[in-house]
Amino acid sequence: MLSIIFIFSCSSGDDDDDNNDDNNDDMVDPMPVENVQVDRVGRVVLDDVYNNDDASDLEVLFTRPGNESNISEYRILITKAETTFNITQEIASDITPDRYLAVTPANGDILSQMPDDILDTDGDFIIDGIDYRAVVLSVADGTTATINQISFPSNEMALAETTVKITYMANDGVMIEDENHKVLIDAMPSTLTGWIPVSPGEQVKMEQGKVPYHDINVAMITHNHGDHFNPQSSLNFLTNNKEATIIAPPQVRSSINRPGVSDISPAFQQSITQEVNGVKITVYHLRHFNLFGNDFSAVQNYVYLVELGGKKIIHFGDVDYERANLASTELASLGGVDVAIIPTFHTLISAENKLLIEEEIAPQLIMGIHLQSSTSVAEVLSVYPEAVVMNKSLEFIRL
Length: 399
Description:
Elements lengths: L15 H11 L17 E5 L9 E5 L8 E10 L8 H6 L6 E3 L6 E4 L17 E10 L8 E2 L6 E2 L6 E6 L2 E5 L4 E4 L14 H9 L9 E3 L10 H10 L4 E3 L2 H4 L17 E6 L2 E9 L12 E9 L2 E5 L7 H5 L9 E7 L7 H10 L2 E7 L7 H5 L6 E2 L6 E3 L1
Parallel strand pairs: 11-12, 12-13, 17-18, 18-19, 19-20
Antiparallel strand pairs: 1-2, 2-5, 3-4, 3-6, 6-7, 6-8, 9-10, 9-21, 10-11, 14-15, 15-16, 16-17
Helix pairs in contact: 3-4
């Protein structure tokens, strides 16, 4: 707490005028603010979301710090990637307003589109052909804190034609989005040992519909296993995201039987195509693999083909890599897909399975997820050298 102390001299009679002067001389200025540094914001993500060919293409998401009560504003700065690490807290604090976007604390994570006329930290216009990063300066309020704090740099990003974004959430979970729609698949699992988890804070944000999950159209669940599905999280999601729809097999629906849950139910090795909240989705019912000494043949495993932004993206859940199973999709004969999101761990990583995917699904790109904690990216890439393999929550790619 800031303490302000005033000292007065008291006298009387003819000395009043002199005493008044003394009072002014002896008055002590407010005690200086203690040297307190504000907190650094958390994860900063830079993304190329729009197609305006200027700075307004860029969107910056950052996580609020633990304490923002002594922060007056945040300043988002766009830096050339090659010079990002030269930007210290002192340099960032002196940058002029034409080179940053000021944002007021909002008691939550902040998602901001950059103005079209903002300059980078070198004073240059933001243009195509240059790699950029974002940093965020937490600005002290000058009352309870006086020292600013700069964030760690964001990912690297260049302006490009924007289509579809796939964000890896954890384990077998992803978020797929274009400019108008967002879907989740297996994004809110239970926390189980041996699998890559989503952070508790991120899962709560999904359940509550907080930024950047504030406008989910559809949440899909592949099957009723804890590393893919959490009943309570799904119920929370339905409560807080009333405009969204959940698609899931009957074995999942039995535990979340509420309004907002679709009744799409293809027969085994059959499919149903339907537009759900503006998103074209084909639901396939394919066999679940048998692994770990378990017989999973009775588990209903749904596979989802999502069409967004002119791209076809298929998520297989825990599909059994068996030719008749994959051939039932008829995707190869229909021209294949842009991205196949496949489970990659243990015996699923094999040249035989890779060939089967190429022949029966014909994807332009394979995205390997659903790694166990003990499975390395290098192990997957040894079989799928041209694949995108993700094992860090909130990594993303643009197609």
